[in-house]
Amino acid sequence: MTSLFKPILLALVLLASGACVAPGTARASECKSGVFNPITKVRWTCIFPITIGGVRIGSYDKLDKALDAQSSSKPLCACRKGASFWFGVKVSYWSPNRMVDVVTEPGCMMALGADLMRTGGRLQGSQSSIADGTNTTKMFAQMHYYISPVWAMLDLFTDLPCLEDDGFDVALITEVLPTWQSATLGAIIQPEAILFGNPAAGLACMSDSAAAAAGKVIDPLFWCMGSWGATYPVAGDIHFGDSVEAWAGLAARGTFMMGRLGALTISSRDGCALQPSPIWTKSRYKLQLMEPVKGGSCVNIGRPGSLWTSAKHAPGKDNAQFMLFEKMICCAGIAVP
Asked: Residue 137: CB partners within 8 Å, gap ≥ 6?
């Protein structure tokens, strides 16, 4: 998937390098804050709890307790991959493996500290009121998804067998996806969206929203994002009452879309391998806001904004950056010859 978008990204860089924006035609870009610094931007307490052989280290919540239940009850593991075979103990932790930008400026690559496109035009983000008596607002923004295994970038824990060692890369930019710009086009390649655009499916999301407020996630309701809205349509439009909550909703929707594109994996419950995840498992992910204001903690998918978004929207800052933490389950052991 990454190789598909590299030529497109290079073309955008070349376009931007030769393009000059006339004075007064666009506001100053928010993308010049510098390249991503994992040491200062990542909330490192989000890696906890760490469970080693059934022993939990660090604080945990209801979601962590449910995810670690199997590791605690079955701490030993055995794996086979081809001719390799090893015994070990299960290790589980939250790993900062991906980053997501949600930007109103098309081409604003916050992780790179660069603006690759002119502002303005059809790809520009927007906010508009819904004239249907509901007093709601709709946001449109672009999304950028990065492969960013922070521990590998910092050269830490390199002896852990389940540590992702891929380099930093840009996996997706929605500016090149017509389906992100239009929900109608998105429905063509994801026709299952029609199944969830009805009142019954919407009512089911109420229970997911209540669970998210309590720190839980209902994985079978994959079309729901708790209080953040619905995963469908998979496009850049989202209804909102809280801007920060809307950013998180688009970041989560982008993660869901990566699964529908075949570029999402999760670790198996036995800790032996990574499995394709065409439909996401929401409980395996949590988000930490890095920009415009660094979040004090990570939040589960769908957590109501009233519980965590206070003072997170700096005046004049309409681009957001998130670190996506993934729950990793690893069988760490010794290979048997």
From this structure: 127, 128, 129, 130, 239, 240, 241
Exposure on the CB side of residue 12, measured as CA atoms within 13 A: 20
pLDDT tens digits, 262-274: 899 998 888 888 8
pLDDT tens digits for 1-10?
444 444 444 4
Residue 297 DSSP symbol: S
Q: What is the pLDDT of residue 19?
A: 35
Tell me how crowded residue 297 is: count the other CB atoms within 10 A of its CB.
12
DSSP lists the bridge partners of residue 321 as 101, 291
d(CA 72, CA 49): 12
Prediction pTM value = 0.85
Query: Tokens 């992702």 correspond to what residue?
Result: 164
Cα separation values, 100 from 87, 284, 287, 330, Å: 36, 16, 9, 24
